[in-house]
Design a protein that fits this description.
Layout lengths: L4 H11 L3 H9 L12 H4 L8 H7 L9 E4 L11 E3 L5 H7 L9 E9 L19 H9 L4 E8 L4 H15 L4 E5 L2 E11 L7 E10 L5 E11 L2 E8 L1 H5 L8 H10 L2
Antiparallel strand pairs: 1-3, 2-5, 3-4, 4-9, 5-6, 6-7, 7-8, 8-9
Length: 265
């Protein structure tokens, strides 16, 4: 069965907007270090924030992530002013899941990396009759079983990057029992937030998952990680709708994190 552009757009919309509202519509870590700066890094003078032009040279580009197509974020990143949570302390988590850089960055830029899976013989089916006996739903889930990751790079003045990362780390702990939020008028609810094992890149990082209750489809997790490289934060948000629908585990796309970390060294 051929992968439709609608499926790709559906995944993109879900990863770049309030998760529950859009995923429902489409579907019917421990950290290396905490966000608190301690030890030698805390005594170092903060560098001046990078410009938007400099960040665009540092963010992943086409051809730099094996197995992934890299390009602009389809639909763009939501307006920060239109992304709110019922509990202010949970807003940093919601910002990360919508591709918004937490805190008060001096400049930021974003890209989207979409897993480019090779087709197999079942992709050649052209009618519902070819996918009888329950195979149609399996084929749909398989066509959507690809990681879509939004990467946002943000640069901060002073200790802004450390404070922004701390705000995310604190929000993950404070919002463990879940929270509600709104993005462009669409309401959604996360039932729980939990820290996960991070990739171990950068100077400090926090990785976490937030779970939606999507009604009859059950719990649907989204995954994110925020990594500090000096006074620059790299945020990664990954969604895999096919894995969600089939209840298969997935994580933040490791090849994307690896490729981006390499450009920030």
């Amino acid at each position: 069965m051929k992968r439709s552009s609608g499926v790709r757009l559906c995944a993109t919309a879900a990863v770049s907007a309030l998760s529950l509202a859009l995923v429902t519509g489409c579907g019917d870590g421990g950290s290396k270090d905490s966000g608190d700066a301690k030890g030698p890094d805390a005594a170092k003078p903060a560098a001046k924030a990078l410009s938007a032009a400099e960040l665009k040279k540092l963010i992943i580009a086409k051809g730099e992530v094996p197995g992934y197509e890299v390009g602009p974020v389809e639909g763009g990143i939501p307006d920060s002013a239109k992304v709110t949570s019922d509990d202010a302390k949970c807003r940093p988590v919601l910002q990360v899941f919508t591709g918004i850089a937490p805190g008060e960055p001096a400049a930021n830029t974003s890209r989207m990396a979409t897993e480019d899976k090779k087709k197999d013989p079942t992709d050649d089916a052209t009618s519902l009759d070819d996918l009888a006996d329950g195979k149609f739903e399996d084929a749909i889930n398989k066509s959507m079983d690809l990681d879509v990751t939004v990467v946002t790079l943000a640069s901060y003045d002073g200790d802004g990057a450390e404070r922004a990362l701390t705000s995310v780390s604190d929000a993950v702990k404070a919002c463990a029992d879940g929270f509600s939020g709104v993005q462009d008028g669409e309401k959604g609810k996360f039932t729980k937030v939990a820290e996960e094992k991070s990739s171990g890149t950068g100077d400090a990082s926090v990785a976490f998952t937030a779970t939606n209750d999507a009604g009859e489809d059950g719990a649907m997790p989204l995954h994110a990680e925020v990594v500090r490289h000096g006074n620059t934060l790299a945020t990664y948000t990954t969604i895999n709708i096919g894995a969600m629908m089939s209840k298969k585990a997935y994580t933040v796309s490791a090849p994307v994190v690896k490729a981006q970390a390499a450009k920030l060294k």
